[in-house]
Design goal:
The complex is a heterodimer. Chain A is an alpha+beta fold. Chain A has one domain. Chain A has helices spanning 5-19, 23-38, 43-56, 69-78, 103-106, 163-174, 182-187, and strands at residues 3-4, 90-97, 114-117, 120-123, 126-129, 135-142, 157-158, 177-178. A three-stranded antiparallel sheet of chain A has the order 2-6-3, with no helix packed on it. A two-stranded antiparallel ribbon of chain A has the order 1-7. The two termini of chain A are 38 Å apart. Chain B folds into three domains: 44-261, no CATH class; 265-390, no CATH class; 404-501, no CATH class. Chain B has helices at 25-28, 31-34, 44-54, 121-128, 153-164, 171-177, 197-200, 211-235, 245-248, 264-267, 269-287, 294-312, 319-340, 349-360, 363-374, 378-381, 404-414, 461-474, 481-487, 492-501, 521-531; strands spanning 58-66, 72-79, 84-91, 110-116, 143-151, 179-187, 252-257, 431-436, 442-446, 534-538, 544-548. In chain B, strands 1-2-3-4-5-6-7-11-10 form a nine-stranded mixed sheet, sandwiched between helices. In chain B, strands 8-9 form a two-stranded antiparallel ribbon. In chain B, strand 8 and strand 9 (442-446) form a beta hairpin. Classes of the chains: A alpha+beta, B alpha+beta. At the A-B interface, strand 1, helix 1, helix 2, helix 4 and strand 8 of A face helix 7, strand 8, strand 9, helix 19 and helix 20 of B.
Amino acid sequence: MSWSLGETGALAIKAARGAGFAWGLAEDAGFAVVWLQARGLPGAPALCSYLSWYAANNHRQDEQTGRCPLLTGAAISDGVISTPQHAQDEIGLGLVRTPLLLLPFISNLDGGMIILDGLSWQNDAGPTHAAPAGLAPCRLRRLAAPPKQALPVTHSRLETECAGCVETLGRLAHRTYAPATPESRLAGAGAGLTDND
Amino acid sequence: MDDTHKPQLLRDADMPCPQTALRPASQVMRLARMGSFHQSRLSFMRVLLRRLKDHGWRFDRPVFDIDANGVGVATYRARGPENTYTLVAFAHQLDDDKRSDRVIAEAWDATFTLCDGEADADTIRRLADNVPRQEAGRISETEMVLSRANKSVRLFSHVVDRLSVGEQPDRDMLESVGYLVRTTAVYGSGKFGAADRSCWGNRPEFTGSFQPELLAVWLIRTFSIDLAEHMASSRAPQTAVRMDPALRRCLGVGNSTGLGMAPFLINHPRLINAWIAARETALARVRAVAAASDTDIAMLCSLARRARQNAADWQVADGRQTDKITALQTDFDAIVARFDSVTADDAYPWDSLYRWAEDNLSPEGQEAVVSLLFEPYGALIDGLAGCMSADETTPHRIDGRMGCDAALAILERDYDWTDSIDFSGNGPQARVWYVSEEKLEPRLGERFAEDLEPYEQPLSPGRDAARMKQDLQRFDRNQTLGAFLLAHPEHRHMARRMQLAVPLDYAEIRDNTIDAAMVPIDMLRCKLSFFGATKFDPRSDRWLRITMYQGAPFPDELDRCDPDDMVYPELRDETARQ
C-alpha cells in the first residue's frame, strides 16, 4: 500500500489541527511534510513524532523541552527570526524539537543561501542523519557561495513503511471530526432517507 | 515554499485579442450570480470531447465479462496520440434497500476506476479487491479516478424490458429521467491512493481541470447503455434489440452532489480564479467583436431557440429553483427576440446585447446569454480552456515582512464587502462548516443549536477577514505582519489567503458563507456549470441532481459528430416558433 503526496499533505494538515495548531500553521505542517517526502526525507514520521509529543505534553514549547519546529519555521519564513546577512554568519535557534521539519521553511530563503545546521545529532540509538525525531541545537548559517543544486524532487508516494505513521496522523486528524448525531446525520448533508427512483 | 505565483490573466493569448473591460469581481463573485451559471464552450466536458475528437482518440471495449444478472467486469479503453487510459467497471447486484446516493452508502450498483494505461488481468484482479469497496479500499499510482454509480431503477428496468422484446424505450421517459445510472462520487487527484495531479497534469489531453474524472464519466455512460443492452439480450436473445443511437443520446450520466463539493470553491482560490477569469475574458472578447457575420447571427438565433426549449423542459420540485426557471423561461422569449433583432450592420452587437441583458433579465437569463454568446466564437475563446487550471502544489509563502498597515489596507480594500456585515449578530454566523466523524465529509451545522464550533473548518473568509482586520487595528501598525502572526497565529490562514488573492480578482466569493440565509447549492451549481452539467435539480438547499453528457456523442460516433452542437436539444416543431 502507498499514499499519494496529496492525501498525505491533507492528512498532515488535519493531524496538526487535531493536535492543537491553528489552521494556518497546520497548513504549513502539511506543506512541510509533502516537501520533505517529495525529496525522499521522512517528513511524515517527523510530523508524527512531533505532533505525538506535542499533544502528549500539553502543547509545551519552551527552551527546555525544545522549540516547536512549525512555529520556529514559520517565524523564520515570515522574517520574524532574521537570517544571517553575511557569509558564514550564524544565527542560533536554540534547541529545536524534530528539526527536520524546519528544513522546508528554510528552503529557498535568500535564493538558497541559508542552510540549517543541526540535522545530525546524537540520540539514544546513536548518531543519525536527518532523523525524524529528537532534539538538536540548530543554527542558520549563510553560505559563502550559492549552492550548486537544490535538493531534487525524487519521490511521489509515501510507501508502506509509513503505515504506522499514517495511522497515528489519522488518529490526530480524527479529532477534527465532529461526532455524528441523529439530527446532523439527516440535516448535515441535507439528503432524504431514500434515493431510489 | 517558493512563491512564484503570478496573476493568471491569461496566458493562452497566441495573439493580442481585443476585449472590453472584465466584469468586476463585485458583480461576478456573488453567490446569487454564481448560482445562476450555465454550461458553456469552456465547460470541461465540452473541452474534453472537442479535444478527444480533434486528436483522433480511439475507443474500444477489451473486456466484457458480465453475466445474465448484470454482475461482472468490463473495461473501456481510450487511446490517444501518446497515452492510453482504461476504465475498469465492476457491475454488482444490489438490493433496493441498500441503494443510496448519499456518500455514507457502502454498496453500489457499479463501481469504477480509470487506469493510467492498459488494465491487464492481474490489474483487474487487484482492483476487484479494492474498487468495489470505494473509500474502504485503496487504489494506486497507476489509477487516476475512483467512482461509483447507482441505477435509476425505474428507467433501467423500462429500457431492459423494452429492448428485450424488440422495442425501443419511450423517448419522453428517457429525456425526463436523463440517465440510466447516476454517479454518487467521482474522486480523482490523489484521493484514496490515486495518482496525484502533479503526476499527469502536464499531459496535453488533460490540460484544464477535471479531465480524467470527466473522461471516466463519459465512459461510464457507455457502460450504462452496454449493461442495459446486455441484460436485455441475456433475457431474450432471440428478440432483443440494441438501442437506437438517436434515443441513446437522450441519456447522459446522472450525478447526486451534496455538500461535500461546496467547500471546493473556497478551498481552491487559485483554481476558481482561473476558471472565472477565463470565462470573464471570453465574455470580454466576444463583447469586443466589432461586427457579427450573418452566419454567426443565424447560429445564435437558432441556438437561442434551442436553449429556450431546454429551459422550457427544465422542471424541478424545488420552489426557489422553480422561481428562477420561471423567470428564465420568460427571459428566453425576450432573448430570442433580441437575438433576432441583431443585424450584420450593428456595431459591437454583442456588447450591446449583453448590456441589454444586464438591464432587462434575471441573473439566470443574463448568464444564459453569456454562455450563448460564446458559441460562434470558438476561435476567439477556446484557447482560454488551457488557462483553466492552477498549480496548487506550491503553497503561498506568507510575506511576513509586509507591514501591518499594508496588510490592513489590503483587507480594507479587498474585503470591503464585509463592512456591511455585523458578525457579532447570530444570523451572519449562524452556520458552521464541519467534517462529520461518520463519513469524513463536509457538512453544514447550526452554530447556536449544536456544539460544533470546536470542529469548525476555515471556510468563512468574510468573517475571518473581519476578525483579522479588527485585531490588526488594535496591533502596533509599525510592526510587520510576521510579528502580528506570531502574536495571533489564529490569523495565519487568513493572512495567507489574503495575500494569495491580491493578484487574483476572482479568487474569493464575495458573500458570507456562514450566513443563515446562505444557500449552499449556489456553490454546487457554479462548480457544476464549469463541469458542463445540465438539468440542475435541487433536492434541498444542500444537495442536487444533475445530468452530464446528455445529448453528447458516444465514443463510437465521436468522429462523425460535432459535440459542441449537441449540447442544446434539437427543436421540436412547436418550439421552432418565432
